[in-house]
Amino acid sequence: EVQLVESGGDLVQPGGSLRLSCAASGFTFSSYWMHWVRQAPGKGLVWVSRIDNDGTTTDYADFVTGRFTISRDNAKNTLFLQMNSLTVDDTALYYCARTHYSGSQFDSWGQGTLVTVSS
Amino acid sequence: QSALTQPVSVSGSPGQSITISCTGTSSDVGAYNLVSWYQHHPGEVPKLIIYEVNKRPSGVSNRFSGSKSGNTASLTISGLQAVDEADYYCCSYAGPITVFGTGTKVTVL
Fold it and tell me: Which of B31, B10, B14 lies closest to B102, judged by CA?
């Protein structure tokens, strides 16, 4: 069974940093592109970032470029999102999700981890 | 990187058909046949219901169908049921990024 389990969400002050993790199991992690998608309270889904299957290609939404860094450890079947210079607008439930290739559909999602940015 | 435009809400009676539009640009919806749709019940994980414009994953009801014309994609739910009440999001590849729609709340009257 495919499983994606996020962790690392927490309450953090504006300007702070946080590192999210997504542990994958039940599939060949190194064969899939991985993404982070977020949903602010009462708002819609927003794509944040993606990384290709071997970690050599990354892309970001404009609103996180320069602040967030996506990475992966295929030996440990884990995806990461390093989040710096957090603002209140980054408050959201962060999901990790997989796709077979660039641009394809999100066929599995984690349950999400909550990031709250507040003073 | 603007979100794709969806109606805020759509409603229908049980058994009726409804259609949700998803309007993008020539850089996303109009450029690729890589439009997908997700059903999201509050508190649950988003569920893929349509991919590559009009394909249904295994196990998804054939009451869900997708189409595209130009820069606008559409999701049709036929034979509306109470379980279909949820939020629906379109999504498109916009090389190299991905963009979601603004989301539509479907209400079954």
Answer: B10
Query: Strands B104-108, B9-12: parallel, antiparallel or unpaired by DSSP?
Result: parallel
Q: Left (φ > 0), alpha (ψ -120 to 50) or beta: where does B43 sit? A: left
- Rounded Cα distance between B60 and B44, Å, is 17
pLDDT tens, position by position, for chain B (109 residues)? 799 999 999 999 999 999 999 999 999 999 999 999 999 999 999 999 999 999 999 999 999 999 999 999 999 999 999 999 999 999 999 989 999 999 999 999 9
> What is the distance in angstroms between the Cα of A75 and the nearest Cα belonging to chain B?
26
Tell me if A107 and B93 make a contact (CB, 8 A cut-off).
no
On whether any CB of chain A is under 8 Å from the CB of B32, the answer is: yes
Distance CA A19, CA A7 (A): 9
C-alpha A38/C-alpha B99 separation (Å) is 12
Buried b (16+ CB within 10 A) or exposed e, B72-100: bbbbebeebeeebebbbbbbbbbeebbbb
Structure token digits, residue B31: 């450029």
Residue B39: what residue type? Q
Question: Would you say A91 and A84 are in contact if contact means Cβ atoms under 8 Å apart?
Answer: no
Q: Are B4 and B28 in contact (CB under 8 A)?
A: yes
